[in-house]
Amino acid sequence: MGLKSKIILLAVAPLIVATAIISYLGFQSAQELAAQELAIYEYNLVDAKKKALKNHVGIALSAIDPILNNTELSDQEAQEQVKKVLRELRYDYDDEGYFFIYELSGVNVVHPLQPEYVGQNLWNFQDRLGNYLIQGLIKAAQSGGGYHRYIWEKPPILEYDEKLSYAILIERWNWMMGTGLYLGDIYEELEKTKAIMNENIQNSFFTVMTVVVITVVLVILLGLAINLHEHKLADRRLSEMAQRFMRLQVNERRGFSRDLHDGINQLLVSCKFRIELAGNKLRRETSHEVVQEELVKASDLIGQTISEVRQISHSLRPILLDDLGLNSALSALVDQFSERTNIQVNYCFDVRTKMADEIETTIYRLTQEALTNVEKHAFATLVTLTFEEEHQGLVFECKDNGTGMKMGASSGIGIINMRERLALIGGEFRIESQKGQGTRIYAVFPIS
């Protein structure tokens, strides 16, 4: 995996993980909230049913209350009228809203929809879950009126459904009177509501996932676009640096070729001419003093040639760098500069780490170029040259008390060469100057 892919993955992976965690927690919270809302909704619906049942029983009690309070009727006559009223009394159109009566012994007295139960003792009657429903209703009635839930056949198709009943006690005859409502409609309503909530939660979750996917895609595309732009920019910079490096090489080779042609070549030609001239004079039996004079001149030319070769070799890579090290080579360069220009140089070298050859050569050339610029342009009397090893690398600083540079002078050939040499090894270069206040050259060389 490439560096760019790792960077994109590093940017996208935390986003995906964080979004997944947040989405999961949000999904769980939404489900818990939906469950709480459904429980509250169920409670409210059941509570509404309970209140309705209590109201229905109160209405039925109001309907039979005149009969119960009529002292002119015998118990048998009053009971028959109460049974008749409750058999005919309804509060719902689908025959679900009826009233029933049981004796406290469990004998059914009134059941409008299932008259076959009338007269039967249902004390031990159980629903499908083993619930003694008649006992539960009688117990609720004896407690001053109460509710009881059980399973019962729902008319008209007589399917079993959960039912909630409210029962009270008719104390005159110790009868339990009550009515009930089926809860199937509530559960159907709850299931519909739950389905709607789940659908909304899923839609929200899918919406979040869609947004996340779009965001991730946009991040990836943006990262690719940025990387592509940076890649093109880096390629352009690399191309420009390669061109500058080639230009630098061509200039150095051109100078080397000029030195060979104008210096060494001319000296060798002159030396060859003196030797040939001495040979011709020797063949003509000229005096030895004349021949000796030509050979001495040839020897002087050879000495000049050797000196020129050493100078060219030194310009390619100073031999002192290999023989004595960077500090000694820079000290010799500073001494030669001071002796040649009569400019005082405060030199400080505080570097302990051994550096690569190309770094040492660049440091030497940069120092050489900086001192050359001081000699040619600064008109300075004092130069401070320091080399210090810090955490960011070797820090080079060259300050003079000269006249400074004019605006735009920092783009000269010498400055450009120094800047390009630093760029080639990944260093940092900066120059500061004000007219009449001297010049400061600052550079950082990578040690490793």
UniProtKB/TrEMBL annotation:
One Pfam family here: HATPase_c
TM stretches of this protein: 7-27, 205-228
The keyword Membrane appears for this protein: yes
Main localization category: membrane
SUPFAM superfamilies associated with the record: ATPase domain of HSP90 chaperone/DNA topoisomerase II/histidine kinase
Catalytic activity: ATP + protein L-histidine = ADP + protein N-phospho-L-histidine
Protein name: histidine kinase
Species whose genome carries this gene: Marinomonas sargassi
